[in-house]
Each structure stands twice: as structure tokens, then as C-alpha cells.
Amino acid sequence: MSVITPNQFKRGAKIELDGEPYAVVEYLHIKCGRGGANVRTKVKSLRTGAVIERTFKSDEKIKQPDFEEKEMQYMYSDGEKFYFMDTQSYEQIEIGTDGVGDNYLFMPENIMVSVQIFNGQPIGIDLPNFVELEVTETDPGLKGDTVSGGSKPATVSTGGTVNVPLFINIGDVLKIDTREQIYMERVRTAR
């Protein structure tokens, strides 16, 4: 079991609190007048995504979790579980809908994702920052309407919906930011 002190915190550092894995989002060293220093932090649960604030004494020992991230290929979903495969060992794992969250809306089959494993159990995934997906449903595009600034909803091949400019048509391939779930640019136009 390895431990770190709050003085060693960095953004993204993994710690274990109350048996749950967290990542440090923000930290601030505070020196009190006569007492010891404290470290005020915001940490994000790697299981639920909830962000909490916590203050630690600077010399407090904090356990580091048995945590790893593994690149795996998304295979398919049966509606209740999502199946991933390690492309090196061909080992397959399954993760429930609570571990995948709404990432499935922008997760095409065969995409490589980062699977988070805590104490030997998969608990969640991170998608690549950007994916390219085809538009399957939207209102007809308006030719020449590129500067009006209007937008409309478009459904992509994985089932997710994003707001897009009015000139986007069915069949266009879009670059989507998976962190914010927003349209970035049109990569290819429909044939």
C-alpha cells in the first residue's frame, strides 16, 4: 500500500478516501499563523463523477488507490452491459450502464477507450477527446446559410444529439468533442 501526503498533490493525482477512488481536481496550500499548514482540495469521484471539497493537514498520510487505466476496444452493448476487449491479450470485460454513463451516446463500436480499473474491477471509461460520427437525422440543410449563427439538433450514428449549424445535412461526418458533447466541425460532407 503506497501513501502520499497532501504536499505531493498534483492535478489528476489519484487518492483513496473512505474506500473510494478520487482524482485531485484543485488544491491550495494554506499556511495558518501558528498551526501547521493545510491543503484545501476539490476531488472528483472516479466512480460517480461527484466533486467534493476536502481539507487535509499537510503531513497527513493518504492512501493511493489500486488504480490503473487500460486501453481497450469497445465491442458492443446488449442494452444493460457494455463489452470491451484488451487488444493485446484478447481478454474481455463488461461494464454496467452506471460505469459508462452517457458516454455511450458518442461511443461507436470498435473505438479505443481508456477503461478505469479499481481494485481489479472496471468502474468507468474515458472516451478519446474527439470522435467523428455521421449524422443520421436532422432537418434539411439550408444552402448558403453559413453565417447566420442559427443551429438545429442533429442525431449521430451512435444515438447522441448535438446542436449543429443550419448547413449540416444527413450523411455529413462531424467531429464531436466528447468531454462537452458538442459539435466542433464538419469533417466530410454527404455524398
Automatic annotation (TrEMBL):
Q: Which GO cellular component does the record give, naming just one?
A: cytosol
A single BP term in Gene Ontology: peptide biosynthetic process
Entry annotated with the keyword Protein biosynthesis:
yes
Q: Chief localization class?
A: cytoplasm
Q: Which InterPro entries match?
A: Elong-fact-P_C (IPR015365), NA-bd_OB-fold (IPR012340), Rib_uL2_dom2 (IPR014722), Transl_elong_fac_P/YeiP (IPR020599), Transl_elong_KOW-like (IPR013185), Transl_elong_P/YeiP_cen (IPR001059), Transl_elong_P/YeiP_CS (IPR013852), Transl_elongation_fac_P (IPR011768)
Q: Where is the Translation elongation factor P/YeiP central domain?
A: 69-123
Pfam families reported in the protein's UniProt record: EFP, EFP_N, Elong-fact-P_C
Pathway, per record: Protein biosynthesis; polypeptide chain elongation
Residues forming the Elongation factor P C-terminal domain are 131-186
What superkingdom heads the lineage? Bacteria
Q: Which Gene3D superfamilies match?
A: 2.30.30.30, Nucleic acid-binding proteins
- Please give one Gene Ontology molecular function term for this protein: translation elongation factor activity
Compartment(s) of residence: Cytoplasm
Report whether Transit peptide shows up as a keyword of the record.
no
The protein's UniProt keywords, in alphabetical order, are:
Cytoplasm, Elongation factor, Initiation factor, Protein biosynthesis
The function of this protein is: Involved in peptide bond synthesis. Stimulates efficient translation and peptide-bond synthesis on native or reconstituted 70S ribosomes in vitro. Probably functions indirectly by altering the affinity of the ribosome for aminoacyl-tRNA, thus increasing their reactivity as acceptors for peptidyl transferase.
The entry sums up its family as follows: Belongs to the elongation factor P family.
What this protein is called in its record is: Elongation factor P
The organism of origin for this protein: Seleniivibrio woodruffii
Q: Which gene encodes it?
A: efp
